[in-house]
Amino acid sequence: MTLEDRREMPTVYEPAEDSRLLADTAVERVDGGVALEVGVGFGYVAAQVASATETRVVGCDINPEACVRAREAGIETVRSNLTDPFAADSFDVVLFNPPYLPTPPEEEWDDPLEHALSGGEDGRRVIRPFLDDLGRVLRPAGRCLLLVSSLTDIDAVVKLAADAGFESREVAEESFPFERLVVLEITHANS
Asked: From the record, what ranges are coiled-coil (predicted)?
């Protein structure tokens, strides 16, 4: 691929079926408080929640172009790696449609869009550190809506959440010929 070809490729993940499923689920299940959308991209999910509910929504993304796009959509956005810059107990709700496509190392590319798509070899490379820090930023009665794919092994994600001190349950799903998308509602264990 030439540099010219790369310039023609999108640099921010375009909202698709997974984004719509997470947005629809969040609009149905979230109303009030403060929410964070991790990996905000164009701001589609955050904007849907902000406009349809009484929730204050902020976003974050590692991709600077995504931050610009989300701000253009009216979403207060911070450039960050996952939840790193946020204070403890900051959010009632955390929303995340992580990069989940299993990608062998030889197929990885150095491109901003890769951060939105590639989940590493097992599809869980970004989910692990996210779940490890989620408990710090999520308020005690808070919850997370995490979109996952059957390509990443949903049971393995549920186990990672349990290992991080959370309970998970499926609250929405959509099936396609090549994968099943699920929204997990994740809460602190014993909350």
From this structure: none
Find the radius of gyration of the CA atoms of the chain: 16
Structure tokens at 187: 């809460």
Are 95 and 49 spatial neighbours (Cβ–Cβ below 8 Å)?
yes
Q: Tokens 């959010």 map to which residue? A: 91
Decide: 118 and 101 in contact? Cβ < 8 Å: yes
Q: Find the length of the chain.
A: 191
Kindly give the interhelix angle for 127-137 and 154-163, rounded to the nearest 10 degrees. 40
* CA 62 to each of CA 11, 130, 169, 183: distance values in angstroms, whole numbers, following the listed order: 12, 13, 28, 22
CA distances from 69 to 14, 24, 56, 122 (A): 11, 21, 18, 29
> What's the CA gap between 124 and 51, in Å, rounded?
31
Going along the chain from its start, the domains and CATH numbers come out as 3-188 (3.40.50.150)
Q: What is the pTM of this model?
A: 0.89
Closest Cα partner for 90 from 128, 38, 36, 41? 36
C-alpha closest to that of 95 among 30, 160, 12, 159: 30
